[in-house]
Automatic annotation (TrEMBL):
Annotated localization: Cell membrane
InterPro entries cross-referenced by the UniProt entry: MetI-like, MetI-like_sf
Gene assigned in the entry: araQ_6
Protein name: L-arabinose transport system permease protein AraQ
Provenance organism: Occultella aeris
Keyword tags: Cell membrane, Membrane, Transmembrane, Transmembrane helix, Transport
Membrane-spanning ranges: 24-47, 86-115, 127-146, 158-176, 213-238, 258-280
Pfam families registered for this protein in UniProt: BPD_transp_1
Highest taxon of source: Bacteria
Family to which the UniProt record says this protein belongs: Belongs to the binding-protein-dependent transport system permease family.
Gene Ontology biological-process entries: transmembrane transport
């Protein structure tokens, strides 16, 4: 019996049709569940954008999911007027994120390379002790950090916003260390034979070979620092040092919700993160695949 005949015989069995029907139903049910989950996740973002282009009267007199008729940009223009001056929080946030991304990426790469490839006494013990700080809730360290920053005179200052988070993070160092450890040793040995020193092997061999992981870490760092709220609210309550999250929360007062303004500010805050994700989505997918294989 040939392969074609065998395939036709199996396909003509009584249970084959019901099996295909069950599999089709399972696939339809799976995709329906995924689509429903995706719509549920996108719902808040769509609601934010729709509310941002409504007038306060439209928002208060219509169903929340009603399309704006007509759409307006007065909420965005109001944010950049002299009354709210939303340019300052955006500028402060961008500067904070830029400094912290550069600081954390640089120090995390150096520390991860030391823990992964260099030999020194107590290396593994020091790494696991440092990694154990991930189990400490961030809220526990806020009061000691605040006391230290105020003692140093860094309250309501740019330095107070960035210094506590400038020198890497346990999660970033752990992620990079595991990635660096999986780099083939033959490549590093070849670079060493060619006369490459420690730093040259790091920047010319290790970093280019781990670009997907670095891109993912870059995105995680930007998102976490862009969305940081608690520490900026505590250490820099002055309006001139408000980041975008604190400025957005300040739009909602005790007696006036200003929901259309809040949603406009939220939309502005979301836009850079969405663009960043679209730019780095291929690298993120690659890093997930590489991490899964490793």
């Amino acid at each position: 019996m040939t392969g074609t005949t065998r395939h036709r015989t199996l396909g003509s069995r009584p249970g084959a049709s019901s099996w295909r029907t069950s599999r089709l139903f399972a696939n339809v049910l799976t995709y329906a569940f995924l689509i429903a989950g995706g719509l549920l996740m996108l719902g808040p973002f769509v609601f934010s954008a729709m509310t941002a282009v409504k007038t306060p009267k439209q928002f208060n007199t219509t169903w929340p999911l009603t399309l704006p008729a007509p759409a307006t940009v007065e909420n965005f223009t109001a944010l950049f007027s002299e009354q709210y001056n939303f340019v300052v929080p955006i500028a402060v946030t961008a500067q904070v994120v830029l400094v912290l991304v550069l600081g954390q990426m640089l120090t995390s790469i150096l520390a991860a390379y030391a823990f992964a490839q260099l030999s020194f006494p107590g290396r593994d013990t020091l790494f696991w002790v440092y990694l154990s700080t991930l189990m400490i809730p961030a809220v526990v360290t806020i009061i000691p950090l605040y006391s230290m920053m105020t003692t140093l005179g860094l309250k309501n200052s740019f330095a107070g916003l960035v210094v506590p988070f400038l020198f890497g993070s346990p999660y970033a160092i752990f992620l990079l260390r595991e990635s660096f450890r999986s780099t083939p040793s033959d490549v590093l040995d070849a670079a060493k034979i060619d006369g490459a020193g420690v730093l040259r092997r790091l920047w010319q061999v290790m970093v280019p070979m781990n670009k997907p992981i670095l891109a993912t870490l870059l995105l995680i760092t930007v998102v976490s620092q862009w969305n940081n709220f608690m520490w900026p609210l505590i250490i820099a309550p002055a309006p001139e040092w408000n980041v975008i999250t604190v400025a957005t929360a300040a739009l909602q007062t005790q007696y006036n919700g200003n929901w259309t303004l809040v949603m406009a500010a939220t939309t502005i805050a979301l836009a850079p993160l969405v663009i960043l994700f679209l730019v780095f989505q291929k690298q993120i997918t690659s890093s997930l695949g590489v991490t899964g294989v490793r």
